[in-house]
Specification:
This protein is an alpha/beta fold. It has a single domain (about 5-240), classed as Class I glutamine amidotransferase (GATase) domain (Rossmann fold, 3-Layer(aba) Sandwich). It is built from seven helices and eleven strands. The strands form two sheets. It has a nine-stranded mixed beta sheet, with helices on both faces. A two-stranded antiparallel ribbon has the order 5-8. A hairpin with a 2-residue loop joins strand 9 (about 165-170) and strand 10. The longest helix is centred in the middle third of the chain and has 20 residues, at about 75-90. The chain starts with a strand and ends with a helix. About 45% of the residues are buried. InterPro entries: ChyE-like, Class_I_gatase-like, GATASE. It holds the Pfam family GATase. Keywords: Glutamine amidotransferase. This is Glutamine amidotransferase.
Length: about 240
């Protein structure tokens, strides 16, 4: 089997390493078959899409809607690299699944309107598949209404005509979409479980996701409902696209 690639941007080692472990666990892949590339540590290497089965993108600290002058040199480099990669990915309709930061990369590439209108605190939300989502193969085996972990400072307010909306929530209308047949993005985190999101809550305290006195409230918020189904997306993606 040709390997899959995980493009990551987390600078903090603990949540970065745990993110990789979670992708390994829920895709069912081993380290030989899921190559992690930490983009915050250096330039994106040349990726020959003929040599890989598909691409995952994890979450990260960057916001596509930040003013250019507020973006660090690393963020500007990473965004430029994603733009070039997505030119090829979208043109070839190559298997791609971006989570959280990944939805911003695809959305920005396709001309979506991205701002803080539908930001969500770290929590569990109820996600509902659209009519298109109910028949999409990547959502096979997942109930039409399910709970998922979220936590983001920006979100897509308006999708471009090239995108098909697959799932929504009351507080964030664009929770999942598809471009073409094989390029996917989710606002929610399909890779997370309770332990994983707890690690991130502690790691990113003080990063603006919640107030200094809201740590315990945030830890409680991610336990208010069981999250059992989103990780199936990752295994289905691998089953569908491994070659």
């Amino acid at each position: 089997m040709k390997p899959f690639v995980l493009l990551a941007t987390r600078a903090e080692d603990l949540p970065a390493d745990e993110e990789y472990e979670l992708f390994l666990r829920y895709t069912g892949l081993d380290e030989r078959d899921l190559i992690r590339i930490r983009l915050e540590a250096g330039p994106m290497p040349d990726l020959d899409l003929a040599d890989v089965s598909g691409i995952f993108v994890g979450g990260g600290p960057f916001n596509a809607s930040d003013p250019v002058e507020k973006k660090s040199p690393v963020q500007r480099r990473v965004e430029s690299e994603f733009s070039r990669l997505l030119d090829e990915v979208v043109a070839r309709d190559f298997p791609f699944l971006g989570a959280c930061y990944g939805i911003g990369t695809v959305g920005a590439h396709q001309g979506a309107t991205i701002d803080d209108t539908y930001s969500e605190p770290i929590s569990v939300v109820e996600v509902t598949a659209t009519e298109a989502g109910r028949t999409d193969p990547l959502l096979a085996g997942i109930p039409p209404v399910f709970h998922a972990f979220v936590g983001h400072k920006e979100a897509i307010r308006a999708l471009p005509p090239s995108a098909t909306l697959l799932a929504s929530s009351p507080t964030c209308p664009v929770q999942m979409f598809r471009v073409g047949a094989n390029v996917y993005a989710t606002q929610f985190h399909p890779e997370l479980d309770v332990e994983g999101i707890t690690t991130r809550i502690h790691a990113y305290a003080g990063h603006g996701y919640f107030a200094a006195d809201e740590l315990e409230l945030t830890l409680s918020a991610v336990r208010r409902a069981a999250v059992a189904h989103p990780s199936r997306l990752l295994r289905t993606f691998v089953e569908r696209y491994a070659r």
